[in-house]
Amino acid sequence: MKLIVGFFYSGTIEPASAGLSFTWFNQRATNPIHIKLDRMLINYSWLEKYPTSFYKVESPGCSDHSPLVLCFGDPLPTYGRFLFKNYWINMEGYWNGVISIISKHSETSQIANLYFKLKNLKAFLN
Fold first, then answer.
1. Which of residues 76, 93, 109 is at a domain's end?
2. Range of the domain at 47
3. 14: which DSSP letter?
4. CA-CA distances (angstroms) from residue 118 to 55, 104, 106, 109?
5. Among the four 31, 38, 119, 122, which has the fewest Cβ within 10 Å?
6. DSSP secondary structure letters along 55-107
7. More confident call, 67 vs 73
8. Is 14 in the same domain as 66?
9. What is the pLDDT of residues 96-120, one digit of tens each?
10. Residue 55, CB-side half-sphere exposure with 13 Å CA sphere
11. Would you say residue 39 has pLDDT above 80?
């Protein structure tokens, strides 16, 4: 049990994935089961060094498990630069939302902390 508890508090996260949405298949023609059984984990030190890393779930081939391949680039097309929209400041709850997101403290590294704050801010504004 200590091993499982330690695992959850180890500071690891699952990076973004591309490819198949399942990693295991029971290979039955009747009552097939497709689930995401296998995972890839990274820590915040890895995220600092490779912030756009992700993993691909490839076709299983002859195995019932799909191979997971770690990639260092960005799987999504890059978009243009961030443009602040002036009307955002007039939206109801804008300042409270921004303050709430920015004031959250995290025990991660500074770069990972900034990354997650900006990610949450983007989700809040969209």
1. 76
2. 1-76
3. P
4. 22, 12, 13, 14
5. 31
6. EEE---TTSSB--EEEE-S-SSPPP------GGGGGSTTHHHHHHHHHT---S
7. 67
8. yes
9. 999 999 998 877 788 888 888 888 8
10. 19
11. yes
